[in-house]
Amino acid sequence: MRVGARSLLAVLALAGGLATGVAAVAVHATVWGWPLAVAAVLTAAYALPGEWWARLPFCWGFAGVAFALSQTRPNGGFLVSADLPGYGLIGVAAVVAVLGPVGTIRPRRHVG
User: Fold this and answer.
1) Distance set, CA 15 to CA 34, 54, 75, 112 (Å)
2) pTM for the full predicted model
3) Is 89 exposed, middle or buried (0-12, 13-18, 19+ CB in 10 A)?
């Protein structure tokens, strides 16, 4: 695959991660929302190829949105609640941020 095509796919994967992160933050506080958000991000991260242009931008896009939206807003409000679902979402974002690059490592092949 050419570099231009990989770059385009990386941008699309990043956009998918950003969109998944926004959706996860929007529904994480509901009873059905947190499991759905976690299942969506983990399934998508697992299903994407373990390449720098696919899994890595998706995982970092999701984690970046989750971390950015967990900050206190200037008016004192917040989007990610300080309870079990909120901390769970931040924990999943941390796991995805770490495992995204790990999933791109390929085992070495021994010759001979």
Assistant:
1) 21, 11, 28, 42
2) 0.85
3) buried
